From TrEMBL:
<dbReference type="GO" id="GO:0000976">
    <property type="term" value="F:transcription cis-regulatory region binding"/>
</dbReference>
<protein>
    <submittedName>
        <fullName>TetR/AcrR family transcriptional regulator</fullName>
    </submittedName>
</protein>
<dbReference type="InterPro" id="IPR009057">
    <property type="entry name" value="Homeodomain-like_sf"/>
</dbReference>
<dbReference type="InterPro" id="IPR050109">
    <property type="entry name" value="HTH-type_TetR-like_transc_reg"/>
</dbReference>
<feature type="domain" description="HTH tetR-type">
    <location>
        <begin position="9"/>
        <end position="69"/>
    </location>
</feature>
<dbReference type="GO" id="GO:0003700">
    <property type="term" value="F:DNA-binding transcription factor activity"/>
</dbReference>
<feature type="DNA-binding region" description="H-T-H motif">
    <location>
        <begin position="32"/>
        <end position="51"/>
    </location>
</feature>
<dbReference type="Pfam" id="PF00440">
    <property type="entry name" value="TetR_N"/>
</dbReference>
<keyword id="KW-0238">DNA-binding</keyword>
<dbReference type="InterPro" id="IPR001647">
    <property type="entry name" value="HTH_TetR"/>
</dbReference>
Length: 248
């Protein structure tokens, strides 16, 4: 079977392939619009037509790489486990592994520092993490709202990835990632099967809000909005008061 000539490859795909190759070759340096267009055999207006900007193209390159990386792995939560925190640990490990195995792509996500529009893959990673937090919230295992937990996990795991990339000449320190992951999880979750796992006002408010998000509310829109506001306030400010007979 013969390979297709470059002209037979769709223009959008040629631009993505060129962007991916140049991003890898740049080794953290800038990739110019001109270089991408020359490698893809197109003019700059063609790039803008398909992606809006050079950043739009490179964001798509990294996003596509992340989706392919996920597709090659078992779906999160597919493994039968009694601990809802296992999927959160897996999401952390997947994020770190992607960054370590694709340092050029990951470096682009956070460079340049303070750019006006963050790379789209940041929100994709955060959504992946958030999806694993919702079951833990429903089980009353979170001590903070899922969205807050997702931001903390993303920030901490990103720091681990950048630290590991910065020491690329040394063996990967898997213990650094594991210890940081476990410390973050300990700060945002409740243990199971111990006195500390007794439901509290805060964890129950978080669980109820997660249930309403997952299954919908029987109340009208104004009442639902008010209930969510109350639950957020309880989750954030309620004393750590245990509920039920187990608290006696």
């Amino acid at each position: 079977m013969t390979s297709r000539s470059p002209a037979a490859v769709p223009v959008r795909d040629r631009l993505l392939l060129a962007g991916a190759r140049l991003l890898e070759e740049a080794d953290g340096g800038d990739v110019s619009t001109r270089a991408i267009c020359e490698a893809a055999g197109v003019q700059a207006p063609t790039l803008y037509h398909h992606f809006g900007s050079k950043q739009g193209l490179l964001d798509d390159v990294v996003s596509h790489g992340f989706r392919r990386f996920l597709a090659a792995r078992p779906p999160l939560g597919a493994e039968d486990t009694s601990d809802p925190l296992d999927a959160i640990r897996d999401a952390w490990d997947i994020h770190v592994q992607f960054g370590v195995e694709h340092p050029r792509f990951y470096g682009y996500i956070y460079a340049p520092i303070g750019r006006e529009t963050p790379c789209r893959v940041v929100s994709e990673v955060e959504e992946m993490i958030l999806s694993t937090l919702e079951p833990a919230a429903l089980h009353g295992r979170l001590t903070v709202a899922p969205a807050d937990a997702a931001r903390q996990i993303l920030a901490a795991s990103s720091g681990v990835v950048l630290s590991l990339i910065a020491n690329a000449g040394e063996p990967v320190d898997g213990e650094l990632s594991r210890r940081t992951r476990d410390a973050i999880l300990a700060s945002i979750t409740r243990s199971s099967g111990t006195r500390e796992s007794v439901p509290t006002v805060s964890s129950t408010a978080i669980a109820l809000q997660a249930a309403l998000d997952a299954q919908g509310s029987p109340l009208g829109a104004p009442e639902t909005a008010l209930l969510h506001a109350w639950l957020r306030e309880l989750a954030a400010t309620a004393p750590d008061i245990a509920l039920g007979a187990a608290a006696l």
